[in-house]
Amino acid sequence: MAVTIRLYISLVLLSGLGTSHFLINPLRNNRKRSLPDTVVDGIEIYSTKINCKVTSRFAHNVVTTRAVNRADTAKEVSFDVELPKTAFITNFTMTIDGVTYPGNVKEKEVAKKQYEKAVSQGKTAGLVKASGRKLEKFTVSVNVAAGSKVTFELTYEELLKRHKGKYEMYIKVQPKQLINHFEIVADIYEPQGIKELNADVSFITNDLMNVLTKSFSGKKGHVSFKPSFDQQRSCPTCSTSLLNGDFIITYDVNREQPGNVQIVNGYFVHFFAPQNLPIVPKNVVFVIDISGSMSGRKLAQTKDALLHILNDVKEDDFLNFILFSSDVTVWKENMVQATPENLKEARNFVENMQTAGLTNINDGLLKGIEMVNRAREMGILLDRSTSIIIMLTDGEANTGESRVDKIQENVKNAIGGKFPLYNLGFGHDVNYNFLEKMALENHGVARRIYEDSDANLQMQGFYDEVANPLLIDVDLQYPQNAISDVTQNNYQHFYDGSEIVVAGKVVDLESNSFVADVKGHGALNDLTFTEEVDMKEMEEALKEQEYIFGDYIERLWAYLTIEQLLEKRKNAEGEEKENLTAQALDLSLKYHFVTPLTSMVVTKPEDNEETQSIADKPGEVKADQISHVYATQLNYQPPSNPYYFVDGDPHFIIEVPEKDDALCFNIDAQPGVVLNLIQDPDTGITVNGEIIGEKKASSEPNKNKSYFGKLGIVALQMDLQVEVTPQRITLWSGGRKSSFTWMDTVTITQNGLSVTINRKKNMVVSIGDGVTFVIVLHQVWKKHPIHQDFLGLYTVDSHRMSTKTHGLLGQFFHPFDFEVFDVRPGSDPKKPDATMIVKNHKLTVTRGSQKDYRKDSGQGTKVFCWFVHDNGSGLIDGVHTDYIVPDLFYHSPIQS
């Protein structure tokens, strides 16, 4: 079945440095409430409305929030909305005292430069761009003058995909306070007619039942939720809100015909979902990682999931199990039919799985592929059956063939396009990009299985999506001379409960009819489905409906086209990748979508300054894992200032905004060596790091990696010392010692120091009005024979350090210049060499990339940079040994 696409809205409005609760000027007994009940830090937020319109699965959502500054001075208000990666922001505006300020979508590099210019001029600009997460945030803030009102309005759209026979809208309700006017309204229009409509609210009470209404008749459906101020209370006298949880709307449409074609303003969309077909038998190989890191709860949950899956396997299916760690183990030498006897034996095999060793992904997959191919050649499998491989792993390949590009090549050649590969990545230590790319180029998908109590249900849920194929080799055909620019129209499988969606342009607008043919192989015979529609009648019928919003089919077509171009781009190289990039960029700019190729900039108003004009078409942001660059005191997000950090083995990364580029270098030092990273004699702030090595040293040269295992922060003017290890955080301040572990989630504020520990992820250290450091924790499997936990250091607001700041990292906090030229092939074809002039040195540098783990400590984000060899020789002042200091808290005296 298709993946469920959900609409997430989590509204959090911030005032000042803390969270501003939604205490809104409601009325009780027709009298105005007193200010203490409605105003937080001077800000009164008096309305939040979520309006959803769905036309033929295409959802158009508007989130509107209104606030007023009741204080005597200007206050900052932030607007924060969470979105799924598949949502498209189509418009954003801020209206302050009747003047509207829009967000604009631009090519990524142009937007980045505009954003950096605004920040360099002291403006508080917000930036929205694509990143690597599933659920990300759109955030923007503005200073509101005393007595002024502000309205935030965010519009976004999404194609709802059918999952287990239903379309689903998921709204995360989390206002965190009482709101005078809070409402959710959804109107649905489906030309096929609505079959069922439901609304499920996790926080519903008896008092709220009468304010949740739902109804449907014919082609229209309606859901509304409008609790009064008092009905939102968690108790009769409480000032806290019980609105905290999930608001889920599900529906399905009538299916008198297997398909439905709609045509509006020269664009068509074809929905195809036949029913009541016999299930095609499947041949499934489970390739399961049983390396040491899968021990404990992961293995127990995997066993539980597989045992439940075996209960759902049908007798016509064939199956096998491949287990891989350092070696590969098979359950049976050939594919076997799912007879009761074989299933009983399979359950016993699963229950006795044990973990040990490393991770040999290559050999495990190749064995599974070879088993399916051999079974087909030997005639073991049914002629009318389909094969799939499902691979589960929680780590990266670290034995056997471990080069990911070579594994991808081996797997692609072995499968040969004959059947799909589905990859499940368990936890955050997997190379998910590798799993996704390998799945996509073999007609499958990748899915992350989150480490949680329901991991077994996540695995079962994925299997349920692919458990019931109804058609294979599905081909959707249209009149060749009548259409153009069609989205993907052939699929290896159609699964029960899902839906295939194809869209395109209609060229022959004079024709009276439009014919769609769908061909596929069923369980019993080959099938053809034909649908003919009258174009004139269709257009007129749709135009009359009040639920239609604009050229929704054109927008749906653009949505699908960009999505599929970007997906193809992941596996393309050279000229093909350039062409796909150009096509996706052109459409992204035309329809104002934020994709990995574009960004959205929101520049807030300043006194006596003209604002940007609103674009002719509403600005759209594809929320393909949107990342906001916004920071509050207690919830760190990536900063807008130039970044300087050291992480990994250890890799030093220096951003140079003036060049729109970055430089990087490594430092090779022995375990136990302490290096000075930052030292500012004016402010008295010093940061040192102690090197650690692997648990077990390698006998091979250049194979031993080193990391920072301890960090020491000194702030002399505040009588402060902080020691951070992968196990503990220890603070000495004013003669007092405090100690915490990474299991804590806590914020400590004392004597101008603020320390926030985000459990098992990172910690944020802010020193007075000066610099902020973010320390990222990297954890590995405790029983790993080689690696051990380590730390990464990231600086925020480095411009607040004095011009005398030095150290391996600190010397780059202030502007410097370099020039790169004569780019040429290097020893690695993927990494060109070049000549660099920097600090009067002429160096040979290599283009490469490192990982930035600020947003995701598991996967990281690639940062491309020019790599300076030999411990940064020629780039750093002196040589790297000049930065060795005697102990973790060594510092220079404060300068007078």
Write the layout of secondary structure elements.
Blueprint lengths: L13 E2 L2 E2 L7 E2 L2 E2 L2 H4 L4 E13 L2 E12 L5 E10 L2 E10 L2 E9 H13 L5 E5 L4 E10 L4 E11 L7 E7 L7 E9 L4 E8 L4 H4 L2 E6 L2 E6 L19 E9 L5 E6 L2 E6 L9 E8 L7 H16 L5 E7 L3 E3 L5 E2 L2 H12 L9 H17 L8 E8 L10 H12 L5 E6 L5 H9 L5 E4 L5 H12 L2 E9 L5 E2 L5 E6 L4 E7 L6 E9 L4 E9 H9 L8 H18 L4 H17 L7 E5 L18 E3 L2 E3 L15 E4 L3 E6 L4 E6 L7 E7 L4 E9 L12 E10 L4 E5 L3 E6 L2 E6 L4 E5 L2 E6 L3 E6 L4 E7 L11 E7 L21 E11 L2 E8 L2 E12 L8 E8 H4 L11 E2 L11
Parallel strand pairs: 5-14, 21-22, 21-25, 25-26, 26-27, 39-54
Antiparallel strand pairs: 1-2, 1-7, 3-4, 5-6, 6-12, 7-11, 8-9, 8-12, 8-35, 9-34, 10-34, 10-36, 13-18, 14-17, 15-18, 16-17, 19-20, 20-31, 22-23, 22-24, 28-30, 28-32, 29-31, 32-33, 37-38, 37-50, 38-39, 40-41, 40-55, 41-42, 42-43, 43-44, 44-45, 46-47, 47-48, 48-49, 49-50, 51-52, 52-53, 53-54
Helix pairs in contact: 4-5, 4-9, 6-7, 11-12
Describe the structure.
It is a single chain. The protein has 896 residues and is an alpha+beta fold. Among the domains are: 282-467, Rossmann fold (3-Layer(aba) Sandwich); 656-885, no CATH class. The protein has 13 helices and 55 strands. Strands 5, 6, 8, 9, 10, 12, 14, 16, 17, 34, 35 and 36 form a 12-stranded mixed beta sheet that branches. The chain has a 12-stranded mixed beta sheet with strand order 46-47-48-49-50-37-38-39-54-53-52-51. Strands 21, 22, 23, 24, 25, 26 and 27 form a 7-stranded mixed beta sheet that branches. Helix 7 links the parallel strand 25 (386-393) and strand 26. The protein is globular.
